[in-house]
Amino acid sequence: MDKHNQNTTSNQHSPSRGSVWEVLGVATRLGLTSFGGPIAHLGYFRDEYVQRRRWLDEKTYADLVGLCQFLPGPASSQVGISIGLLRAGLPGAIASWFGFTMPSVLLLVLFSWFFAGTDIEKAGWLHGLMVVAVAIVAQAVWGMAKSLAPDPPRGTVALLAAIAALAFPTAGTQVAIIILAGLIGWRLLPRKEPEDTIPITLSVSRRSAVLSLVLFAVLLLGLPLLAQVTKSQWIAIADGFYRTGALVFGGGHVVLPLLQSVVVPHGWVSGESFLAGYGAAQAVPGPLFTFASYLGTAAAGLSGAALATLAIFLPSFFLVIGALPFWQYIRRRTAFQAAFAGVNAAVVGILLAALYDPVFTKAIKGPFDFALALIAFGLLMVWKMPPWIVVAVTALGGWVLEVFS
User: Which percentage of the chain shows pLDDT scores above 70?
Assistant: First the structure.
C-alpha cells in the first residue's frame, strides 16, 4: 500500500461498533415505517444511520449505496445488511435484515391467507390491486429509463431487450438477455473514468469473501440440477426464489418478471393472484422482495413462505460479504462499469416487457380499468402521492367499479 492510500485509510472515519440488539431495534423501527420503495428506503437509512445516530459518515454510506446498486438483488436491503455487518459483524447483518424485513413479511403472509380461495374476478377491491400494478410498474419503467437508458446506445439495448423478452417469455431468456447486455456494454458502450472513493474498513477477510462467493455460485448452479433430479416442490421453490434473488439487477420492481416466470408456469399461483399480491406489496413498508413471502404462502403455506423468503434474500448476504473486500478494486475498473451500464439498460427493457405482459394484459379488461390505471398513474407521477395511498385509492376504485357495473 502506498503512502497516499495509508493516509487515506488512517484519516477515514471507520464505522463505529455496537450491539446486535441495538441494530435489531433500529432496523425493526425502520421496517415498520419505511414506505415508498428502495429509493425512499435509502433516504430513511441516511437520516437514521448517518445523520441521527452517526454510525457511519456520509462518504462511507455513499460508498455502500454504490456497491449495493452495483450488485444484483434488493439494493436497500443490501445497504441495511452492510450497515449491520459494519456495526456488529455477521450477527449484526442478520439482525439488520430481520428487523427491516419481518414486518412486511408478516403482513403479506396474512394477506395471502385472507386472499386464499377468493375469486379475484368477483372481488372489486382485489381487482383494483391488479390495476394499480399497471401504474406502479409504468412509473418504475419511466424513472429507470431516464436514469439507466437516457441515450441512444443504452436506449437501443433496452428496446431490444424488451422485444426479446416479449418474443421468448421464459426465465432462461431473461438471464440470457442480462448476460448478452453485459457483453454489449463491455465491448461497445463508452467508458467513464471512475470517481475517487474512500476505502471501506471492515472485519471481513478476503478468504471469507471468496468462500461466500463460492457458496453463492454453488447454490446458483446446483439448485436447478437438484430440482431436476429430485422433482421436489420444496427444492423447486428454493431454486426459483434463490435464482431470482441472485439475478435481479436493479432490485425493486424488476423482481416482477422473474418471479412471474417462476411461480405462474408451475401453477403455484394464478396470474390474477400474482398481480393482486404484487399490488398489496406496494401498500406495506419494507423491501418489495417480501412479495416472495406472499407467493411462498400461496404455494405451500407458512413453510413455503419461510423458504421463499430465506431463498430470495440469501444471495444478498453472500454477495455483500463477498463483494465488500473487493469493492474498491471493482469500482476503479471502467470495463465493469460499462458492462453494468449495459445490464442496467437491459433491465429497463425486461421491465417494459413485463408492463405489457403479464401486468397490462391481466389487469386491464376494459376502458374503465384503463381509466382507473390512469388515475393511479397521475396520483403517482403528477401529485407525487405515496404508493400505499395510491394502492388504497385504487382498491377503493375497483370496489366502486364492481358495485356500479
Answer: 91
